[in-house]
Design brief:
The protein is an alpha/beta fold. It has 2 domains: 1-80 and 154-229, 3-Layer(aba) Sandwich (Rossmann fold); 87-152. Helices cover 33% and strands 27% of the residues. The chain contains 7 helices and 10 strands. It has helices spanning 46-54, 98-107, 112-121, 137-149, 167-182, 194-200, 218-228, and strands at residues 8-17, 20-30, 35-39, 61-66, 69-70, 81-84, 155-159, 186-190, 203-208, 211-217. Helix 5 links the parallel strand 7 and strand 8 (186-190). Helix 3 crosses helix 4 (137-149). The radius of gyration is 18 Å and the shape is globular.
């Protein structure tokens, strides 16, 4: 059987804003069907890294490949991508169902029935008439997650996906992400919550001052548990 290459590959990626170097020689490979976590303080470069993978920011040097295509050269943006970076944007005068329906009309890949199903999957009522302006922070976060996953993308980039969720909501979305992983999706997420990272991630990296460093893998954690038992 032919071995598949990485879903995402970064080679010697740097990013500068004027004299400020925000990413420093970042190398990273993400394999299909795994969850990767990035931890680090605010301002460490996590969000900039995610924006470079998504094609929202051009790299200064190095290259980013997603599904084998070079971002900024072969394609402007990755194919089959779902993303939450910073605060999800909505047409707040419209309902939670109308927002993803408008997005879906751009590509025409999914039906209205698919949208109803994905809203239920993230814990929202598709028949709720309330405009998004009246949504709580947690409801907006659920809607953002729905929009990120609704077209069944192969890659998910999620920057603090649990923001605003209560304990029950966090547990629901963790289960959803593990289901997506089992379905073969590749997920890169940043979270300040150590438990999110421990439960969800196969590999964990730390970003500090623009430098990305490998911290641990799931198998290493299991070996440590076995050694201590």
């Amino acid at each position: 059987m032919e071995k598949k290459g990485p879903c995402v590959e970064l080679e010697h990626v740097t990013k500068r804003f004027g004299q400020d170097q925000v990413l420093k020689e970042v190398n990273l490979k993400l394999q299909t069907g795994k969850v990767y976590g990035i931890v680090g303080n605010n301002g460490s470069g996590k969000t900039v890294l995610m924006k470079c993978i998504c094609g929202f920011l051009p790299v200064t040097t190095g290259c980013v490949r997603v599904f084998g295509k070079r971002i900024g050269k072969d394609v402007d943006f990755p194919e089959s991508l779902g993303v939450i970076i910073e605060t999800p944007g909505f047409l707040t005068q419209l309902t939670g169902r109308k927002n993803p329906e408008i997005l879906a009309d751009l590509n025409r890949r999914i039906s209205r029935a698919d949208i109803r199903l994905v809203l239920k999957k993230v814990g929202l009522d598709p028949d709720l008439k309330r405009p998004v302006s009246k949504y709580s922070l947690g409801m907006r976060q659920r809607l953002g997650i729905a929009q990120a996953i609704m077209e069944n993308p192969g890659l998910l980039i999620l920057d603090e996906p649990f923001n605003g969720l209560d304990k029950h909501g966090v547990e629901e979305i963790r289960r959803l992400l593990l289901e997506l992983k089992a379905d073969g999706k590749t997920i890169l997420l940043a979270s300040h919550n150590e438990e999110d990272i421990r439960i969800l991630c196969d590999e964990v990296y730390e970003m500090d001052g623009g430098v990305l460093t490998f911290m641990r893998s799931e198998c290493e954690d299991k070996e440590a548990v076995n050694c201590n038992s």
